[in-house]
Design brief:
Blueprint: H1 5-14, H2 20-38, H3 43-55, H4 65-70, E1 72-76, H5 84-101, H6 107-128, H7 135-140, E2 142-146
Antiparallel strand pairs: 1-2
Helix pairs in contact: 2-3, 3-5, 5-6
Length: about 160
C-alpha cells in the first residue's frame, strides 16, 4: 500500500531539504570516489565504481561518503529506512553514463553524450523542482535532507567566573 498523497505533501512540507550547493558538493565527492575506484586494474575497478555509485545511498543512515562530508542524508518519502533497492533506483540515472562506458567502441561517445544530457536534466530538476527532487529522487520517492543528530547529552559550559 502506497503512502497517501496528503501524507506525502505533509512530509515534503516539513522536511528540512538540503541546500542545492551542498547536494552538488556531495555528489562531486561521490564521483571522485567512484572515479578513483574506476582506476583499480581490470574489470574490478569498473564494477567497484558502478557498485559505489548505485549503492552509496543504501548504506546505514542513507548517507554516502559525500553526504556524510556535507551533512546530508537521503530519506524515503514513505518514511521507511533507506535500503539498497531504493539506492539502486535513485542512482540509476546517474550511473547510466558509467554503464554506457563499458560498451566497446561506441561506449565512450555514448557515455559523454548521455552523461551530459543526464547532468543537464538532473541539474535542472534538482534546482527547479518544487520539492527539490531530481529524476532519481522522483523514481525512488526519496528526498535529500539536512542531517541532524539528536543529542540528549548536554554538556554544561564551565563557569569562567569561578
Amino acid at each position: 500500500m502506497g503512502i497517501r498523497w496528503q501524507d506525502r505533501r505533509e512530509f515534503m512540507k516539513d522536511a528540512r531539504r538540503a541546500r542545492y550547493l551542498s547536494r552538488l558538493v556531495a555528489k562531486a565527492a561521490d564521483f571522485i570516489i567512484a572515479m578513483s575506484l574506476w582506476h583499480i586494474p581490470g574489470a574490478a575497478g569498473a564494477f567497484a565504481s558502478l557498485f559505489y555509485i548505485l549503492m552509496c545511498d543504501g548504506f546505514p543512515g542513507g548517507r554516502s561518503a559525500g553526504k556524510w562530508l556535507t551533512g546530508l542524508k537521503v530519506v524515503r518519502v514513505d518514511r521507511e529506512a533507506m535500503d539498497f533497492p531504493s539506492s539502486l533506483l535513485r542512482n540509476l540515472t546517474v550511473a547510466a553514463p558509467f554503464l554506457f562506458h563499458l560498451i566497446p567502441v561506441a561506449g565512450p561517445f555514448l557515455a559523454y553524450t548521455v552523461g551530459l544530457a543526464v547532468l543537464l536534466i538532473e541539474t535542472y530538476l534538482g534546482f527547479y523542482d518544487a520539492d527539490g527532487q531530481r529524476a532519481g529522487d522522483t523514481l525512488a520517492e526519496t528526498l535529500v535532507v539536512e542531517y541532524r543528530q539528536e543529542t540528549t547529552d548536554v554538556v554544561p559550559l564551565p563557569d569562567r567566573r569561578a
